[in-house]
Amino acid sequence: MTASYDGSMTTDATGTAPDRRAVVDVHPAGDAAPELRDPSLPVLHIDDLAAVRGDGIFETFMVRDGEVRNLDRHAGRFTNSAGMLDLPAPDLDRWIAATDLALVRWAELGGGDASLRWMYSRGRESTGIPTGWVTVAPESPAVSRDRDNGVAVMTAHRGYSLDISRDAAPWALVGAKTLSYAANMAALRYARAHGLDDVIFTAADDGEGSDRVLEGPTSTVIAVRDRDGVREILTPLPEVGVLPGTTQAALFRSAGDAGWTCREAPLTVADLFDADGVWLLSSVRRYARVTALDGTPLGRPDCAAEIEELATRAAEGR
Ligand code: PLP
């Protein structure tokens, strides 16, 4: 069995299903109630546009103590993503009912920390009826390893740059969590092939002298400054074309309450080197401190334990 990058377990090389997985067919477009499926059997038709074109959206939730965390933030982004792809607005009550069903099954299977996905596809080419699934799988050991050890990261040009505030290219779907993650996975494979753990996408500088920071392939970037009486957490402006992170948004709320100044700002790679600490945030992994950036070690600041506790609370929706 191998660990996927968003913190869930994937099948092993023989295609064998992992020991424990809950699968629910949501039937997002029909009257049929969500129903449990046998995880050892296929659930997708060969002409489903999720498989054929990656034409759909998803969310990945942390499951802790039998519950999904930050449900409202994920559901809001899911609805927004659906709108950007011109998919019918998801019936959230139905998706939540499917989630409850999956979590009951998960508990029957033994429960434990997990990763729960909502996947919503444009549906089969032959029918045009949207399809959707909720799945639960065990949390990968890789996520706790990254939390404990941090990650060595390379910066990498994403290959395109957009100002989404000017609605420059709505078809690029930047800001939607689409099923088309092949390029993100390719960037992570590239990093791993070069002995690194993760990537921070950048865009060529437009006069600032240093490339602009975007996001990780599966994470939001934060830079922390804690010196000379300044206690600040910065993340790139959404306008640069990043997926708005639920963990970062929750962190900004809890850290703001704890006295940190939290700001979206036009971050550059030079700002990351100048920061006291840099972290990658995402729902299941929660946080991974960047221990080295493009080969330069980044020290662990005194505030690290506090930031990581705040990030844990944020990811757990506490
Ligand atoms: N940015 C990208 C591209 C992602 O794929 C993810 C999560 O998978 C994030 C940011 C972090 O989002 P969240 O904190 O909602 O998990």
Automatic annotation (TrEMBL):
Keywords: Lyase. InterPro entries: Aminotrans_IV, Aminotransferase-like, BCAT-like_C, BCAT-like_N, Class-IV_PLP-Dep_Aminotrnsfr. Pfam families: Aminotran_4. One of its GO terms (biological process) is carboxylic acid biosynthetic process. The keyword Lyase applies. Its EC number is 4.1.3.38. GO terms for molecular function: 4-amino-4-deoxychorismate lyase activity. One of its GO terms (cellular component) is cytosol. PANTHER family: AMINO-ACID AMINOTRANSFERASE (PTHR42743), AMINODEOXYCHORISMATE LYASE (PTHR42743:SF11). Belongs to the class-IV pyridoxal-phosphate-dependent aminotransferase family. This is 4-amino-4-deoxychorismate lyase.
